[in-house]
Write a structure and sequence with these properties.
503 residues, alpha/beta, seven-stranded mixed β-sheet, four-stranded mixed β-sheet, 14% strand, globular
């Protein structure tokens, strides 16, 4: 039985909305706040109560001196040589030059608490010594070979990875990214079933290649190219969805799609156990996706049954929810009591190394033997060594358990803020995969996207880095390295609270 955690700051954080003279929390002083605004920063504007900025937890690491190009120089060169629709975060983009566990350092040596984890990618912590050692040792021996030769690094990792899955999910294909993993999974499902139709969920994100773009159900991530054979079901969103938390009613839409939109059989269904894709918004007019949405209870088991009856395969996209990030289980799908036919992995698998994977059964995997399929860099020895080290660190340091304990504590503390700040409409997620949705009104749920941009800017100024998400670009995404501590959680919540008080 898992223990329920409560936030010890609850009595300090909460105040009645209709009582302007109620007490505010007092926090220790720090040198983080800009000195020219020190006096202004001390008052919250509500009854003139004293509120001093929170202090970042102590961390025993001194960053190396940086002698490289400045942020302004890099920004100019990036615009010229790296044209992209996605710009860097923040009005004044950060030039991050060093990382250590849950912290990052900019060009001036300033420390930031990383509550974003490189988009839920840094699982063990930045530059974890065990992962670095395994990677460097392998690189000194052999950087690259080919699947035409034997090498123990890739086989050792595949064996260790397969051992983490139930049933006969023992066939592993390594890729270079989550997009490539999902592309391969969709192709396998279509080959195995001899069907083309795929069902995915509205608001989901599965990649930006041809098939995965079709499975992605957000217009901001879809170019005007041919995307065939994908049907998008109602999003089982307990906060904004039409059926609230009734997962079975949402699942009925999947059955309707099969009945009215296909021949009665499908290739498969693909979904994340928690919708988590970020937003790349740079202005209040842009939109994002995902938003850390927990699927309505009962939805995935019901859909699993529906898909199997229609002859399809169930694909679990664990690119962001895997490797203990949700805390309660090593894989997100386990919390729903189902066993998928295909699982896709990336991000946290390598702690930043470019590697992904598809895991399925030998019977299903056999379809790829009908033609020649291989990946030049899939299972690269260096990336395999990094991935294997990640598994060992997660187990040795009990990071999944830490994600549950600290993540539950952090969620409870964030939930405590809802009664204090009307701008917080919802706090959701599991483990180290949390979202805070901001609204102009808690009843009407009007998205507060401009306010969200302001808040994350101010949080950055105080030393906390978070992500953006949600279809309306109004969700603060919190996906830190799994080594996050309760002291880090306290600091994050205090900074968010302080920032909202100053609005």
């Amino acid at each position: 039985m898992m223990k329920h955690f409560s936030c010890p700051y609850r009595s300090l954080l909460l105040r009645k909305k209709d009582n302007k003279t109620s007490s505010q929390f007092l926090l220790s002083t720090t040198t983080i706040a800009p000195s020219n605004e020190e006096e202004e920063e001390k008052k919250d504007g509500v009854g003139g109560n004293l509120v001093v900025p929170p202090e970042m937890p102590h961390f025993n690491h001194t960053p190396s001196p940086y002698r490289g190009p400045s942020a302004s120089d890099l920004l100019k060169r990036r615009k010229h040589y790296l044209p992209t629709s996605v710009g860097p975060y923040y009005t004044n983009p950060l030039n991050l030059v060093e990382g250590k566990m849950q912290y990052l350092y900019d060009e001036n040596g300033r420390r930031y608490l990383d509550a974003f984890g490189g988009i839920a990618t840094v699982s063990c912590g930045h530059c974890h010594p065990d992962v670095v050692e395994a990677t460097v040792n392998q690189m000194r021996l052999l950087q690259h070979t080919t699947v035409l030769y034997l090498n123990h690094a890739v086989i050792d990792f595949a064996e260790a990875l397969a051992a983490k899955f139930p049933s006969d999910l023992k066939a592993v294909f390594f890729t270079n990214s989550g997009t490539e993993a999902n592309e391969l999974a969709l192709m396998i499902a279509r080959l195995y079933t001899s069907c083309h139709d795929i069902i995915s969920i509205r608001n989901g994100y599965h990649g930006n290649a041809t098939s995965t773009m079709g499975a992605t159900a957000q217009n901001i991530h879809k170019f005007n190219v041919v995307q065939s054979g994908v049907h998008h079901a109602l999003n089982p969103d307990p906060y904004r969805g039409v059926f609230g938390s009734d997962g079975v009613k949402y699942a009925n839409d999947v059955q309707d799609i099969i009945d009215y939109g296909t021949c009665g059989r499908v290739a498969g269904f693909i979904a994340e156990s928690i919708q988590v894709m970020l937003s790349f918004i740079t202005s209040v007019l842009d939109e994002g996706v995902g938003g850390v949405i927990e699927l309505a209870p009962g939805y995935l088991p019901e859909v699993h049954s529906i898909i199997k009856k229609a002859g399809g395969l169930f694909i679990a996209d664990e690119v962001q929810t895997g490797f203990g990030r949700t805390g309660s289980h090593f894989w997100g799908f386990e919390a729903h009591g189902i066993v998928p036919d295909i699982i896709t992995l990336a991000k946290g698998i390598g702690n930043g190394a470019p590697i992904g994977a598809v895991v399925t059964t030998p019977q299903i995997a056999e379809v790829l033997s009908r033609r020649t399929y291989f990946s030049t860099f899939g299972g690269n020895p260096v990336c395999s060594a990094a991935g294997h080290a990640v598994l060992r660190v997660i187990e040795k340091e009990k990071l999944a358990q830490n994600a549950f304990v600290v993540g539950s504590y952090l969620k409870e503390c964030l939930s405590s803020l809802m009664d204090k700040h009307e701008i917080i409409g919802d706090v959701r997620g599991k483990g180290m995969l949390l979202g805070v949705e901001l609204v102009k009104d808690q009843k009407l749920k009007v998205p507060a996207n401009a306010e969200m941009l302001h808040i994350i800017e101010k949080m950055k100024d105080m030393g906390v880095l978070v992500g953006k998400g949600g279809f309306h670009g109004n969700v603060i995404r919190i996906t830190p390295p799994l080594c996050f501590t309760k002291e880090d959680a306290d600091f994050l919540v205090d900074v968010m609270d302080y920032t909202m008080l100053k609005m």
